[in-house]
Every structure is written in structure tokens, then in C-alpha cells.
Specification:
By secondary structure, the protein is α/β, with parallel strands linked by helices. The protein folds into two domains: 193 residues, NAD(P)-binding Rossmann-like Domain (Rossmann fold, 3-Layer(aba) Sandwich); 185 residues, NAD(P)-binding Rossmann-like Domain (Rossmann fold). Helix content is 29%, strand content 19%. Bound molecules: nicotinamide-adenine-dinucleotide.
Length: 404
């Protein structure tokens, strides 16, 4: 599927989800798209919640338009591809954003049925070439940093060791559970603040990374079955029994921590419960848990999504959409991720969906009225075999006009 870039319009809208302050484009990320000959139209005020004025976009060559003109663009860039995104989509349109494609939400099906082509940023493969497009990583990095600040804000102690004339204050003890992108960012941030940091992950391969950041890796005598899970791999779901054993083995370390930051995820599944209510009961009043998996069900049994719970004096924070709370930087990296992905589709003056490219194929969720991604089809109960096999792109009319 290809079309002339001449006349190609790329639209960016203001996000409507509650609490969403990020924007899918920034003035700094515009250049490669303009250079490729595209017009970039930005809904008036779209960047304001993230700190990017209309004037800043205009100075870099974007056009400021009304919402309906931005939505009508051939390519629509969004942060959240949610129900708000469905209404304006049309056949032939390419929509790129965070679409929670493995959550079984109606949005994905609705967009497919409207004939639009949908790319989900969550599905960017974990390969070296795809790193610059990996929005999950860029946003997790920010979330890990902010989790430490949230904890520091609630903790009735300081993080660093302080030796003063009035006595010595010991450093805060921080445990980070899950040493993926968010976890490593949390470890680095807590270390910068001077805390004594320990970290645990089911993938023993991360031990070296944890130690290189100055934290102690907690080793548990537990067969997690994840020995092969090196860098780049997702953790596998573990049995209830293994998770129970994990809780048992981890409880002493949790009880001795002032702060526990949990970041453990299993792609496409509910987050594993790692900190049980009984484990929270053993923590010292005043301690803090920040559960970055709150939106996926939580790593802590006490967590309530979007709330801070006082459980016997222990604060259990279940924040949602954490990257959005640092919207300028979150948008800067997200927009770069999106532009890098989009650039894979711009070839020799054409939009060319090369499904032989593993990144294009891996992120393509819906096309020509149907869901084409095998894993997503499975989630929606569609027969996997019915997905069209990758085929060389067929030429398409070279204008912005929407096919009937
Ligand atoms: P993630 O968000 O899927 O999960 C966070 C962490 O939780 C992971 O490290 C996982 O092993 C851990 N976890 C899951 N279940 C657990 C449990 N029961 N107990 C303890 N920990 C548990 O992971 P992520 O942050 O996206 O990163 C996973 C790996 O992938 C990392 O090594 C990361 O560096 C790598 N990565 C590579 C690329 C790339 O090469 N392009 C991109 C992103 C991530």
C-alpha cells in the first residue's frame, strides 16, 4: 500500500483522556516529517498541557488547525488511541499510538471496522533496531524516576545518609521489585538520592545491570523458570504456587525496607502479586509502597488503582499514567519514538507499508477492515489463520483523498 507523500498530511490532536497531558508531537520532532514533504497539522492547543505552544510548533513549520482538520489527516498521531480516537477515523487513514492492543478493548475492533490502518506502539519489537521506536521503554524510564519521587514525598525520612552535629541519620532502604526499564530507572534515581538500594527480578540475567547501578541484587532460592530471559526478553507468567513461594522468600526483605517500588509486569497478562497483604502488615508504619503495576492489577495486594491507601500506617500508592505527570519530557521521547516508526513507512516520496519489515509487521494491528496481528486476533477470539499473509504493498491512489 503506497501513496504519494506530496500532499500527505499528518495530524496531531489534543488528548482527551482524563489526566493525559502528553502530546504525540513536539516542535523538535517535526523536522524529518517536513523534510519528507509532509504537512503536519496540529490541533490548536494540543501541545499546551505538555508545555509546547502553538507558536513553537508554527515556528518549526507545523500548521495550527481546528480539531476536525487534524482528525481528517491521512496519518493521525496520538498518545492514547482510545474510544475518543474512533469517531474520526476513516478508511485509508493510518492511526499510530498507544492502543492497548492485547487488552481486548472495543477500540481496536472499532477502528479496524472503520477501515483504518492501526499501529500500536506497545507492539514495537524488542530488537536493537527498534529501540529508538520503543515507547514502552521511553515511558517506563520516566515512570521509574517518578516512582522514587512519589515515595520520597511520602516517606517521613530522608533518603541519604547524613552525618550531622546532631547525630547520624541512616540512609533509607529501598527495594525495587522488577528490574526492567522502569525498575532500573528507579534504582538509579534512588541511588542518586543516596538510598541503600536492593532489587529483585525473576530474571537472574539482570543481576549484573542491578549491581552496575550500585544496588544489591536479592537472590532467592526459587526456580522461576526464567533463566533464559536475558536482556530483551519478557518475563513469563509463573504458577500461583511459585508466586506464593516468592512472597514467602521476599517477605523479610520487604519488611526491612522503608520503600518498596514494584514494577513487575508480564506482557499481555495481569501483573503478578508479589507483595501480599500479610507482607505489608509486617512493614514498619511510615513505610511506603509505590506500585507501578497498579493499572495492570497491581504487584501489591493492597494497591487500589489511582489511590493512596493507608494500611496500618504503611502508604500504598497506586499511581496511574505516571509518565503523563512529567509531560514535557515524556512527550519529547514519545514523539521521537513515533516519528522514528513513521519514517520506516516513508520511502522515496511514498508511504509504503512494507510488511516484510519486522517492525512494521510487528506493530501493524489492523488493516483493510480487519485485525491482522496474530496475537491481537487471538485476544479478540478471531481465527489466527485468517490474518492476511504479509504481501508486497500494492500501489494506491496518490492523493490525500479517502478511498470510498
Ligand atoms: P516489563 O515491563 O515487562 O517487566 C518489568 C520487570 O518485571 C521485568 O524485568 C520482569 O522480568 C520483571 N518481573 C516479571 N514478573 C516478576 C515477578 N514475579 N517477580 C519479579 N520480577 C518480575 O519489562 P521491561 O521493563 O519492558 O524490560 C524487560 C527486559 O527487556 C529488560 O531486560 C529490558 O532491558 C529489555 N528491553 C529491551 C528492549 C530492546 O532491546 N529494544 C526494549 C525494552 C526492554
Amino acid at each position: 500500500m503506497s501513496s504519494e507523500v506530496t500532499g500527505l498530511t499528518i495530524g496531531v490532536v489534543r488528548e482527551h483522556r482524563d489526566g493525559e497531558r502528553r502530546v504525540a508531537m513536539t516542535p523538535a520532532a517535526l523536522a524529518p516529517l517536513l523534510k519528507a514533504g509532509a504537512r503536519v497539522v496540529i490541533e490548536q492547543g494540543a501541545g499546551e498541557p505538555a508545555g509546547f505552544s502553538d507558536q513553537a510548533f508554527a515556528e518549526k513549520g507545523a500548521e495550527i488547525v481546528g480539531r476536525s482538520d487534524a482528525i481528517a489527516a491521512r496519518v493521525l498521531l496520538r498518545v492514547q488511541v482510545d474510544q475518543d480516537a474512533v469517531a474520526g477515523t476513516h478508511p485509508g487513514q493510518i492511526v499510530i499510538g498507544l492502543a492497548t492492543p492485547l487488552a481486548g478493548v472495543p477500540t481496536v475492533k472499532d477502528i479496524a471496522e472503520r477501515g483504518a490502518t492501526l499501529f500500536a506502539m506497545e507492539l514495537v519489537p524488542r530488537t536493537t533496531r527498534a529501540q529508538a521506536m520503543d515507547a514502552l521503554s521511553s515511558q517506563a524510564n520516566i515512570a521509574g524516576y517518578k516512582a522514587v519521587l512519589l515515595a520520597a514525598g511520602e516517606l517521613p525520612k530522608m533518603f541519604p545518609l547524613l552525618t550531622t552535629a546532631a547525630g547520624t541519620l541512616p540512609p533509607a532502604r529501598v527495594l525495587v521489585v522488577g528490574a526492567g526499564v522502569a525498575g532500573l530507572s528507579a534504582i538509579a534515581t534512588a541511588r542518586r538520592l543516596g538510598a541503600l538500594v536492593e532489587a529483585y527480578d525473576v530474571r537472574p540475567a539482570v543481576k549484573e545491570e542491578v549491581e552496575s547501578l550500585g544496588a544489591r541484587f536479592v537472590e532467592l532460592p526459587l526456580d522461576t523458570g526464567q533463566e533464559g530471559g536475558g536482556s530483551g526478553a519478557y518475563a513469563q507468567q509463573m504458577s500461583e504456587e511459585t508466586l506464593r513461594k516468592q512472597q514467602e522468600l521476599l517477605s523479610k526483605t520487604v519488611a526491612g525496607s522503608d520503600v518498596v517500588i514494584t514494577t513487575a509486569q508480564v506482557q499481555g497478562a495481569k501483573a503478578p502479586v508479589i507483595v501480599s497483604t500479610a507482607m505489608v502488615d509486617q512493614m514498619t508504619p511510615g513505610s511506603v509502597i509505590v506500585d507501578l503495576a497498579a493499572e495492570q492489577g497491581g504487584n501489591c495486594e493492597v494497591t487500589v488503582e489511582g489511590q493512596t491507601i493507608d494500611h496500618g500506617g504503611v502508604k500504598v500508592i497506586g499511581p496511574t499514567n505516571v509518565p503523563s505527570s512529567i509531560p514535557t519530557h515524556a512527550s519529547l521521547v514519545y514523539a521521537k519514538n513515533v516519528v522514528n516508526l513513521l519514517q520506516l513507512m516513508l520511502h522515496d516520496g511514498l508511504i509504503d507499508l512494507d510488511v516484510d519489515d519486522d517492525i512494521v509487521r510487528g506493530t501493524l494491528v489492523a488493516r483493510d477492515g480487519e485485525i491482522v496481528h496474530a496475537r491481537v486476533r487471538e485476544v479478540y477470539g478471531l481465527p489466527v489463520a485468517a490474518a492476511p499473509a504479509p504481501a508486497p504493498p500494492a500501489p494506491e491512489s496518490g492523493t490525500e483523498e479517502v478511498p470510498a
